Amino acid sequence: QVQLVESGGGLVQPGGSLRLSCAASGSIARIDTMDWYRQAPGKQRELVAAITSGGSTNYSDSVKGRFTISRDNAKNTVYLQMNSLKPEDTAVYYCNAEVLTVTVVDGYAESLDDYWGQGTQVTVSS
């Protein structure tokens, strides 16, 4: 019903930059919070950044000052600009979105659910 498609991952040298994007499509009435997570092999998944529909943001301490999350509500798209990349940033990055969907039967039925992208690999060489 709802799909999130990510792009922008790749191989980059330490100190370099990448921009990730994630576009949501499908039966979408509204998207609330959109987030970026990352997970490296053998490590815990962590929340990297989050942004509300109103533009309020928060970041993990490890990326604060280097990464910037933004969104284009008209395009149902969230971005993650990653600057000054470090080897420890290497991970699979996943986007997540809280999506309100509406089903019309006799009346309106609403559902707010989390959806996940497929993940995109970011590798920072050392």
Can you characterise this structure?
- This protein is mostly beta strands and 126 residues long.
- 0% of the residues lie in helices and 61% in strands.
- It is built from no helices and eleven strands.
- The chain has strands at 2-7, 10-12, 18-26, 30-39, 46-51, 57-59, 67-72, 77-82, 91-104, 108-116, 120-124.
- The strands form two sheets. Strands 2, 4, 5, 6, 9, 10 and 11 form a seven-stranded mixed sheet that branches. Strands 1-3-8-7 form a four-stranded antiparallel sheet, with no helix packed on it.
- Strand 4 (30-39) and strand 5 (46-51) form a beta hairpin.
- The chain starts with a strand and ends with a strand.
Primary descriptors:
126 residues, mainly beta, 11 strands, elongated
Approximately what portion of the residues adopt beta-strand conformation?
over 45%
Mean pLDDT, nearest integer? 95
Order of helices and strands: EEEEEEEEEEE
The residue ranges in which pLDDT falls below 50 over 5 or more consecutive positions are none
| Helix count from the secondary structure assignment | 0
Please give the largest β-sheet.
Answer: 7 strands, mixed
Summed up:
The protein is mostly beta strands. The chain is built from no helices and eleven strands. The model has no long low-confidence stretch (mean pLDDT 95).
